[in-house]
Write a structure and sequence with these properties.
The complex is a heterodimer of chains A (about 750) and B (about 500).
Chain A (H helix, E strand, L loop, with lengths): L1 H19 L7 H19 L6 E7 L4 E6 L2 H24 L3 H23 L3 H19 L6 H32 L4 H6 L5 H17 L8 H4 L5 H10 L4 H13 L3 H22 L5 H21 L3 H29 L10 H4 L1 H15 L5 H16 L2 H25 L17 H19 L2 H11 L13 H20 L8 H5 L7 H24 L4 H23 L12 H19 L3 H21 L3 H22 L15 H23 L7 H12 L4 H9 L1 H34 L1
Antiparallel strand pairs in A: 1-2
Helix pairs in contact in A: 1-2, 1-4, 2-3, 2-4, 3-4, 3-10, 3-14, 3-19, 3-20, 4-5, 5-6, 6-8, 8-11, 10-14, 11-13, 12-13, 12-18, 13-14, 13-18, 14-16, 14-17, 14-19, 14-20, 16-18, 16-19, 17-19, 17-21, 18-21, 24-28, 25-26, 26-27, 29-30, 30-31
Chain B lengths: L4 H22 L5 H22 L13 E3 L4 E3 L1 H26 L5 H20 L3 H19 L6 H32 L4 H8 L6 H17 L8 H8 L2 H26 L4 H24 L4 H22 L7 H36 L10 H4 L1 H15 L5 H16 L2 H30 L8 H4 L6 H19 L2 H5 L12
Antiparallel strand pairs in B: 1-2
Helix pairs in contact in B: 1-2, 1-4, 2-3, 2-4, 3-4, 3-10, 3-13, 3-19, 4-5, 4-10, 5-6, 5-10, 6-8, 6-9, 7-10, 8-10, 8-11, 9-10, 9-12, 10-12, 10-13, 11-12, 11-17, 12-13, 12-16, 12-17, 13-15, 13-16, 13-19, 15-17, 15-19, 16-17, 16-19
The chains are: A mainly alpha (about 750), B mainly alpha (about 500).
Chain lengths: ~750, ~500
């Protein structure tokens, strides 16, 4: 299992870097490069002999296996990930001058790459999710890497929240899909796609995950924010790899679900909107990184739309081309930023003359982005147009044509902004010497763009093998409709550029035209929901954790009573069997009990309240007598008397009158809770008496009280039959008394020390 | 009476250890030895748990399958053995966490370990009890000693308040529980779970019975601090000594869940519509309220307090999902398995999180998140472990917590039906909120600058005491290993034997 091991190597190396950190010194960079190189070797040797699957039994109880798929698609994607990763790690080794920072960054990069390498190769839904989340967490750490800036932190949080909501939705989708398909293997699911509502819901959830990860409308807003990441991270995560994860997932599932209406419609529509929106937005940017980020959004939209139309081969070709040129451009921007301290196109001027090598590299990548021959960007875009025309997707063709024109325009904006001399710009004529390790990676990628542009044959066969989709990658397609579309796009883009350029600092009709797209609603939805969440959290904290014991008690009582009452309604028959009265004495006593109870609550003095409470007890004792239970009545009388006496003792040390009304709960709420409690207890008592238990406990006690040594049954129960319970109660009360005593004593001691000091 | 001493060996060894700790405390030796005896006893009582678990492959062991003792009221099966293991392990790690803490001041070490071990004994008994009375005795043995432990810092008013609040609420919940149990007993005339289940078939719509069931469950809701019975939790967690908080949030809480599991799936199996509905509400409330409040916390201990409420909510999700009427026995077994798995993984990651908190507190004294900024710069090892435990709590793969979340979602979704799906959706949203605040702590430790108020010598400071290092090591290994190879749990044996369909 060479591929599996090569994926594991990333994690081993990341752990090593994390543990050893700066102690690795010169070994750090070779060590960080090693897993990428190893994987490239594995891919190169595996290509000739594609063994199908590498399987590790992982969760047999859930029927989940860690399956790594070694087919052509995996190999194409893996080589993109590993090649660009290798170059960017080499670049970052020089980009970061601070040794601890470099170690931390490289460790994270390798960790992330492991996640990405696993993601493109996993053939199991849950394994894929595992690697997916690794990339989410790693990207959070990478975006927030620049710890000084608050903006970086906020952006990192936003990126991770949006993608992890999507990720969890996707997990839900995976669970549902695996349940309805009976397997978690992607190749098996695609071979025999499940149908029905569950599968449709699963698909929607999975698409949600793919769209959030790949920054598709309406979730596209997090990607520009993520530009707070260090530039090498942006180059890798936000152009070549992580944002492609959603595309990869769509590519994997497309063979099985392309015919599902929900899939085709949603994917194509979302792709088209994203494509246009991203390109328009790119025309507004002054920050080179933001310009590229919006361009990425647009290109991702293009790929998604192609997949939606079933043109997976073209999508894969565009993916490869985009990874190459976009990584190059980001790395170039990184160099510019590092050398000049700015990425603003209003400030940069004249780099073309001061650094021709850099300009050459950038120019190659830029014409690839714009789709101008003879580079890979043109070849892949041409192939895509060709496929779209052959398929008769006219709406897609129209939108893609417009977006392509816009792409040409923002490429020009990029080029003029960054490299040409301009009147208002601050001249940065002398970039100084650019280190070879910094310029080499983008230069190599630019060369690759040219090589694959001129000789696309190898890539063509790889893409065809990977997607089983017809796609023609040739440098000169001949005079075909697709070429006309390309030419029109280039001409249109040039026109837009001519109109809009030099005016990008002023508010012109152009900027007013695209103004409405300025604040994408989704960003508002995101910040709105974060605000709402925070406000809800505040409110809930205020209500639930306000520190007031009466509130706690009220909530607990209400919950207990209402939950029980609901179960009575649910479970059915709760009609007690009852009679209103047995005679006049009862009624009189009950009236006295109720009246004194009400009076208790209205009493202003503590002593009066205690006495009234005693009176309630006496009335209840009277009812016991009326029912012929003198033992019980006697006990009740004793206890009431004793309690009142105790109250008298305690109350002598407390103020005569009650304090002000507690403010935490209004009178009506307290009344309602008390009323509910009363109603509930009444109901429970009625229900209890309407049950006739099998065994008559009362007879047992009556018969056995005398042998146990007493005539008063209640006394005998308390001191003999249930003596242990009595002991328990006494213990509980004693413990509570000790606790209260300790608390009072500590408080008093503290007060004393406070007074003393 | 013919007693199976092998089946009772863990309890017997633990009981002897409890006595031994008291004796050692009286001897003229360093108090430190009481902890050593306690740890040794826990380890020894773990051995019979293993021999019982692997009985079929051991020669000297007389394999009798599930061992039923004392007239159906005490059962030793895979479920109870796994949970005994969790309780013993949890107590073991809690002692490791406590050693450094107790040595740091004039605390009553012997008594402390005596109480902790007694409580652990209660939990071990609880895992096997299949009878209302045994269950109650076990549960109260778990809870009783912890009242005292929560107030262990006698001079501190907060600690006293923590203990008193905990005690009062604990006693109220015991009263409600007992009231419920007495109603159940009164209506069914049975105390064994088997008996109750058999007797309940004809009286499921008897209001007094449903009231008994609901009260019993609500009594447990206090124990597992489900919202709205959670009010004591944050105050007690914050006021109690941190090792005690770790113990409360893991062993004591797990004991509550074990009670719920055996009651719901055995005794009240015929009343799934009732406990399913009640626990559905508690699950949704606990997750949402716990998470929302945790989001607002600035103190890491309080944050963990609320997070444990929310985690409890996640554990209740499979119960709530079981409300769906058409759930098949296999799906219910899944739900049962999901809660047990979650419980097991939660125990390790939460203990680990508290171990990190204790270790950081040893340096910085405070648990305020602001003060923890830049921890990575001067304590990279601790910061890494903090990231591991907190991200595991957040459910990030490949750390153990993600598997817990996966089986939880999976059980709810596979049961299906509107209510179960709705609960799964609530759980997903809460998982996101949870991620936000766990990640906030990690981010503070890794990326925020070191606060200027912290003197430089504190940063270079003290090393972590060996016992704490050991605890950290154990939990890290468990969390990472369970994350990568979660199937270990399924290999522990069939946890669901005797539950749901095995009846």
């Amino acid at each position: 299992m060479p591929l599996t091991l090569s994926i594991a190597a990333y994690f081993v190396v990341a752990a090593l870097i994390g543990l050893a950190g700066t102690r690795l010194r010169h070994a750090l960079i070779p060590l960080a490069l090693a897993p990428f190189a190893a994987q490239l070797i594995v891919v190169a040797t595996a290509a000739s002999n594609p063994a199908d699957f590498e399987t590790i039994s992982w969760l047999p109880s859930l029927g989940v296996e860690l399956v790594i798929r070694v087919n052509d698609l995996t190999l194409v994607l893996t080589s993109v990930v590993a090649t660009i990763g290798f170059l960017i790690v080499a670049y970052s080794a020089r980009y970061f001058t601070d040794a601890p920072k470099r170690a931390k960054f490289l460790g994270l990069m390798v960790f992330f790459s492991g996640g990405m390498a696993g993601l493109v190769a996993a053939d199991d839904l849950f394994a894929l999710f595992l690697f997916w989340e690794v990339t989410t967490v790693a990207s959070y750490l990478l975006i927030g890497f620049d710890d000084q800036k608050a903006a970086a932190r906020a952006a990192a949080v936003q990126a991770v929240l949006v993608t992890s909501v999507g990720g969890l939705a996707m997990l839900g989708g995976f669970v549902l899909l695996s349940i309805s398909a009976g397997t978690a293997s992607i190749s098996a699911i695609v071979a025999a796609p499940p149908e029905g509502t569950t599968a449709t819901v699963a698909l929607v959830l999975i698409l949600l995950g793919a769209f959030t990860k790949s920054a598709q409308f309406p979730f596209h807003f997090w990607l520009p924010g993520a530009m707070a990441a260090p530039t090498p991270a942006s180059a890798y995560l936000h152009s070549a790899t992580m944002v492609k994860a959603g595309i990869v997932l769509l590519l994997l599932l497309a063979p099985g679900f392309a015919s599902e209406p929900v899939w085709a419609v949603t994917v194509t529509t979302v792709g088209l909107i994203t494509m246009t929106l991203g390109a328009v937005q790119a025309m507004r940017q002054h920050d080179l990184k933001l310009l590229l980020a919006h361009g990425t959004v647009s290109q991702l939209g293009f790929m998604v739309a192609l997949i939606g139309a079933g043109l997976t081969g073209a999508a894969l070709a565009v993916l490869v081309a985009h990874a190459a040129f976009k990584a190059t451009l980001f790395l170039v921007v990184g160099i510019i930023d590092k050398k000049t301290g700015t990425r603003d196109i209003r400030h940069l001027s004249g780099i073309r003359w001061s650094s021709p090598v850099l300009a050459g590299v950038a120019a190659t990548a830029a014409i690839s982005m714009a789709g101008i021959p003879p580079v890979l960007g043109f070849v892949s875009k041409e192939a895509a147009f060709d496929a779209v025309i052959a398929d008769g997707e006219w709406i897609l063709l129209a939108v893609a044509g417009v977006a392509s024109a816009l792409t040409v325009a923002y490429t020009a904006r990029f080029w003029w902004g960054a490299f040409e001399e301009q009147p208002g710009g601050v001249d940065v004529a002398h970039l100084g010497q650019i280190d070879r390790p910094l310029i080499a990676p983008p230069a190599l990628l630019a060369v690759a763009s040219i090589v694959f542009g001129i000789l696309p044959g190898g890539l063509e066969s790889a893409v065809i093998a990977a997607t089983a989709d017809k796609v023609k990658l040739v440098l000169w397609p001949g005079f075909k409709p697709a070429l006309a579309v390309s030419a029109a796009a280039i001409a249109g883009g040039a026109l837009i550029h001519l109109i809009s350029h030099r005016t990008w600092t002023a508010r012109t009709w152009w900027s007013r035209l695209i103004e409405p797209t300025r604040l994408p609603p989704a960003q508002n939805v995101y910040s709105g929901s974060v605000r709402l969440l925070n406000r809800t959290a505040d409110a809930v904290t205020g209500i639930v954790q306000n520190g007031s014991l009466p509130v706690y008690l009220a909530v607990i009582l209400t919950t207990i009573f209402s939950v029980t009452a609901v179960t009575w309604l649910v479970a059915g028959d709760a009609t007690p069997d009852w009679r209103f009265t047995n005679g006049a004495p009862e009624v009189i006593l009950a009236v006295i009990a109720i009246a004194t109870a009400i009076a208790t609550t209205r009493a202003k003095r503590r002593m009066a309240a205690a006495l009234l409470l005693g009176a309630v007890g006496f009335a209840v004792a009277g009812i016991y007598i009326a029912f012929g239970a003198p033992d019980l009545a006697l006990t009740q009388l004793l206890i009431e008397t004793f309690t009142v006496a105790l109250f008298a003792f305690v109350l002598s040390r407390l103020p005569r009158r009650f304090g002000a009304e507690p403010a935490s709960l209004s009178r009506s709420v307290r009344l309602a809770v008390a009323g509910l409690a009363g109603a509930f207890v009444t109901m429970a008592a009625l229900l209890a008496t309407s049950v006739s238990p099998d065994r008559d406990v009362a007879t047992f006690y009556a018969e056995n009280a005398e042998p146990a040594g007493g005539r008063n049954i209640v006394n005998v129960i308390l001191t003999d039959f249930r003596a242990l319970d009595t002991l328990g109660e006494i213990t509980v009360l004693a413990a509570a008394a000790i606790g209260i005593g300790a608390l009072v004593a500590t408080n008093r001691r503290r007060n004393r020390t406070e007074e003393a000091s | 009476m013919n007693i199976d001493y092998h089946a009772l060996a863990p309890e017997i060894i633990l009981a002897l250890t409890v006595v031994a700790v008291l004796v050692v405390d009286l001897l003229p030796v360093e108090k430190f030895w009481t902890a050593v005896v306690g740890l040794g006893g826990l380890f020894l009582s773990f051995i019979p748990v293993l021999t019982l678990g692997f009985c079929e492959s051991l020669e000297f062991c007389d394999d009798t399958g599930v061992r039923v003792l004392f007239g159906d009221s005490y059962v030793v099966d895979t479920f109870s053995l796994v949970l005994k293991g969790v309780f013993l392990g949890g107590a073991f790690i809690s002692i490791l966490l406590s050693v450094g803490y107790l040595e740091s001041d004039r605390f009553w070490q012997g008594e402390y370990y005596f109480l902790l071990l007694s409580s652990a004994l209660g939990a071990v008994v609880l895992a096997s009890s299949r009878d209302l009375i045994t269950l109650f005795v076990g549960l109260e043995l778990v809870t009783g000693p912890t009242f005292l432990m929560a107030g262990w810092r006698k001079g501190d008013a907060r600690s006293n308040e923590a203990a008193l609040k905990f005690f009062i609420i604990g006693v109220i919940s015991a009263a409600i529980l007992l009231f419920g149990m007495s109603l159940v007993y009164g209506v069914t005339g049975e105390t064994t779970f088997t008996g109750i289940r058999l007797a309940s078939a004809g009286i499921v719509d008897q209001p007094l019975f449903t009231m008994g069931v609901v009260f019993t469950l609500l009594g447990f809701a206090f124990k597992v601090s489900a919202v709205p019975f959670h009010f004591w939790t944050p105050d007690t967690y914050e006021g109690a000594p941190t090792p005690v908080t770790a113990y409360l949030s893991v062993v004591s809480k797990a004991a509550g869940f074990v009670g719920l599991l055996v009651l719901c799936y055995l005794a009240f199996a015929e009343l799934r519509n009732i406990w399913g509905a009640a626990l559905w509400i508690l699950a949704a409330l606990s997750m949402t309220v716990g998470n929302l409040i945790a989001l607002k916390q600035t103190n890491v201990v309080r944050l963990l307090g609320y997070s444990s409420i929310a985690q409890g909510g996640f554990m209740l999700v499979p119960f709530g999902a079981a409300v769906t009427a058409g759930a098949s026995p296999a799906q219910l077994e899944d739900a049962f398995f999901a809660t047990v798995t979650y419980l097991l993984i939660y125990a390790f990651m939460n203990l680990g999180a508290f171990a990190v908190v204790i270790a950081v507190r040893n340096r910085l004294v405070t648990a305020e998140m602001d003060a923890w900024g830049g921890l990575y710069n001067y304590a990279p090892g601790l910061a890494t472990m903090l990231a591991i435990f907190f991200l595991s709590l957040a459910g990030v793969p490949p750390l153990a917590g993600w598997f817990a979340k996966l089986v939880m979602f999976r059980s709810a979704l596979s049961i299906g039906g509107g209510w179960a799906i709705a609960l799964a959706v609530i759980a997903v949203l809460n998982a996101v909120i949870g991620f936000a605040y766990y990640a906030k702590v990690v981010k503070a430790a890794w990326f925020d600058p070191i606060p200027e108020a912290i003197p430089a010598d504190e940063l270079r400071g003290r090393s972590i005491v060996p016992s704490l290092q050991f605890a950290l090591g154990l939990t890290v290994v468990a969390v990472v290993l369970l994350g990568f190879f979660p199937d270990v749990i399924a290999r522990l044996g069939d946890l669901t034997t005797g539950f749901v369909s095995g009846f």
